[in-house]
Every structure is written in C-alpha cells, then in structure tokens.
Specification:
binds iron/sulfur cluster; single chain; Rossmann fold; globular; 16% strand; alpha/beta; 280 residues; 12 helices
Length: 280
C-alpha cells in the first residue's frame, strides 16, 4: 500500500495557524514526508502533543493523536507505547513543552529507552503564551519575562538527552529541509528513544525582542551558526563558541523498554505458573 503525504495531512485544517515565517510549518512538513516515505499507515501512527504553538501540530495530522497538558507529551507517548508496542509513536514539542515544563519527562523517556521519537522545534521561548523565557533561551537574551536579558544559562538539549541515555540524538535547522526529513526518517526507524532537535525561529516574539530581523534573516543566522558535526568536533573549544553541531550526533544499538518489559512479563508469568502448580 502506497502512503503519501496527502494521507498524513488534514487538508480541511490547512492552512495552519502559525505566524508567517515560523519554523513549525517546515517541521510539520518534514514529519509528514518522513512518515509517508517510510510507508507507515496513519492508523498505526500516534502523535502526542502538549501545549504551545507547536503543540497544535497534531491538529493537522490524520493519525491517532493525543493533545494533552503542558509538558506531558512524552508521558502520554510513553504510556501509549507501553501498551501498544506495534504503534509508531511520535511526541512533537516546543522547547517549553519538552525542556522547561516537561524536562523531567524528557530525561526519563531517554533513560527508559522507550521506542518513541521525540521531535523538538526549539525556538528559545514560549511562543504561544507571549514570548516568555524558557530553559533554552540563551543567556543575556531578551524575552517578555527577561526584558533586560536572561540571567540563566540554557540547556543544550542534545547533550541533555545524551547524558540521560538517549540512543539516537540528532540536530538540524529549518534551513536544512532535506536533511531534516532524512534525520526524522532515521529517528523513526531507530528502535529505542530517538531525539531530533530543530533549532528554530520565532520571529514574532524572540526575533522581535532581540532585534534579529525577519524570519529569513533569522533562518540565515541560524544556518551560519550550524556546522556539520564532523567538522565541529575537530574545532578547538574556543572556535566552537557561538556555533553548534548538526547531523546525527549519536546513534547506538540499545535494548528498548518494550523488549525488556516483555522478558519481565514472561518471567512473572512463569513464576505464577510454577506457584500455582502449573495450572495458571
Ligand atoms: Fe511561531 Fe512564534 Fe508565531 Fe508561535 S508566536 S506561531 S512560535 S512565530
């Protein structure tokens, strides 16, 4: 059965509500193309979201979906995958959802190695609620809640997920559209917790507060700071400042949660059978 992007996107819901130049639409298209390219049918796909501009992404997918509370997209995804191991489960989040309110769920989903694909469109602020500071707002940058500069250092999300045990970690930008689709395809194909960060832009709030110009200028500036990971890691630390690596940053085979849990279930059933004298 051939699956196309048209099967994945709900034409009756388009055009989407995101501002002109927002990166979220680019990410939405890449996710839809990746899923269709893999030939996964919509009835076998579940998309979970929380709150925030990118939390509206599930509205546009003709898949199963669960739109829940702020920061809980990965908690919902974990429960769904635990009871539906054959489903393809994606959590689509912004940085507020994934790393700020939902930071705890992010590290534990990575640690558990649930077979979920987490996609974070990281635009360094809470867009939907008015451009507030998030855990990925760079230090000294302005937001609606840090008018004179953010006093806090930001999370490097890929390093955070790697440190928590994530088996597949990748990063890209809205400029690298084809690479984004390939990375998302690889992440969905990976068995275990896969994480893709898209360093995005919110021209309406973050860009305006920091006088970074329009969306084209912001994407161009992001592109200038993105360096292929092989080249990036060869640079001395002082030359890495102000830049970030893109591509697959880490990929290793690990036993996923469902495989381990299935073995534990078998052991428990065997113990029960023995304790009941073989009648259970
Ligand atoms: Fe995108 Fe920012 Fe507009 Fe939200 S407020 S849709 S994140 S540009």
């Amino acid at each position: 059965m051939t699956v196309t992007i048209a099967d994945y996107l709900r034409q009756d819901k388009l055009p989407h509500l995101w501002c002109g130049g927002c990166s979220h639409g680019v990410v939405l298209g890449a996710v839809a193309r990746a899923l269709a390219g893999l030939g996964i049918t919509t009835d076998k796909t579940v998309i979970t979201t929380g709150i925030g501009c990118f939390g509206k992404a599930d509205d546009y997918f003709a898949t199963h979906a669960l739109h829940g509370t702020h920061g809980r997209a990965l908690a919902f995804a974990s429960g769904i995958k635990a009871v539906g191991p054959d489903l393809t489960v994606l959590a689509l989040m912004g940085d507020g959802d994934a790393a700020t309110i939902g930071g705890n769920h992010l590290i534990h989903a990575a640690r558990r190695n649930m077979d979920i694909t987490a996609i974070v469109s990281n635009n360094s602020n809470y867009g939907m609620t008015g451009g507030q500071c998030s855990a990925t707002t760079p230090i000294d940058k302005k937001t609606s809640t840090s008018q004179y500069g953010n006093p806090e250092p930001s999370f490097d999300l890929c390093s955070l997920v790697l440190g928590a045990g994530g088996g597949f970690v990748a990063r890209t930008t809205p400029f690298h559209v084809r690479a984004m689709e390939k990375l998302i395809t690889a992440a969905i194909s990976y068995r275990g917790f896969s994480f893709v960060e898209i360093v995005s832009c919110c021209p309406t709030y973050y860009g305006r507060y920091n006088r970074e110009g329009d969306a084209a200028a912001m994407v161009s500036a992001i592109k200038e700071r993105a360096v292929n990971k092989d080249k990036f890691y060869q640079l001395p630390p002082e030359e890495q400042q102000g830049y970030f690596p893109i591509g697959v940053l880490h990929s290793e085979e690990k036993i996923d949660f469902n495989t381990r849990y299935q073995k534990i279930q078998q052991k428990a059933q065997e113990a029960l059978r023995k304790s009941s004298g073989g009648t259970a």
